[in-house]
Amino acid sequence: MNQTETSSKIAQYLLKAKAVKLSPDSPFTWASGWRSPIYCDNRITLSFPEIRTYIKQQMASAISENFKDADVLVGVATAGIAIGALVADELGLPYAYARPKPKEHGLKNQIEGRIVQGQKIVVIEDLISTGGSSLKVVKHLRDQEYDVLGMSAIFTYGFEEATHNFEKADCSLITLSNYNALINEALKMGDIDQNSLKRLSSWRESPSSWE
Q1: Which CATH number applies to 3-201: 1.10.1660.10, 3.40.50.2020, 3.10.180.10, 2.130.10.10?
Q2: Could you report the per-residue pLDDT of 117-143, keeping only the tens digit for each?
Q3: H or E element: which one contains 35?
Q4: pLDDT tens string 24-34
């Protein structure tokens, strides 16, 4: 199965599991304050064995193909923790997870698990919007002189801001599916009509000012 087919199938699964909700006429409000016609919570896929297995297998395959030298996976807390553990198990690799900032109590750890200097790391996320919180983990790992090869995620909105942020951080990003694939599958499945498609497409072009 090629990347386009994988991207479409993941999009179908996200819609069927209702991990993604599309509501162009009654937008959601994100924590950032952005008004959005889409809400994505990929953690819901964990409740569906067929879906989580497919995502696990496809991400493991993507990592093997794009990051051949990976020695350890690091999930981003909290949503990337579970999928990261599943993929690490599939690949038979060591695993840890990291927070965008240190814990405020106890040992105040930012990284949970063991990473050895010299190991090559792939960071695992569930969702990429602007990439801000995910790249904080990459920066922390690199500040600790760990070798980060790149990041893999289930889904990306494909914002230009995210592309810029990953380029600026010199961090390769591999995602299984994306916003264009999602809205195309939603149209095929009858979840949206052509008018909704236009609104959903216009949001992606200017999400911070969309109404």
Answers
A1: 3.40.50.2020
A2: 999 999 999 999 999 999 999 999 999
A3: strand 35-36
A4: 989 999 888 88
d(CA 23, CA 50): 26
State how far the Cα of 209 lies from the Cα of 211, in Å rounded to an integer: 7
Per DSSP bridges, beta strands 35-36 and 28-29 are: antiparallel
Q: Count of CB atoms within 10 A of residue 36's CB?
A: 19
Residue 41: which of 66, 86, 78 has the closest Cα?
78
DSSP state of 104: S
- Distance, CA of 21 to CA of 182 (rounded, Å): 11
- The token duo for 74 is 């690091």
Separation CA 21–CA 119 (nearest Å): 38
Q: Which residue has the tokens 């994100």?
A: 30
Global pTM? 0.94
- State the pairing for strand pair 120-128/72-76: parallel
Residue 178: phi and psi, rounded to 5, are: -150, 175
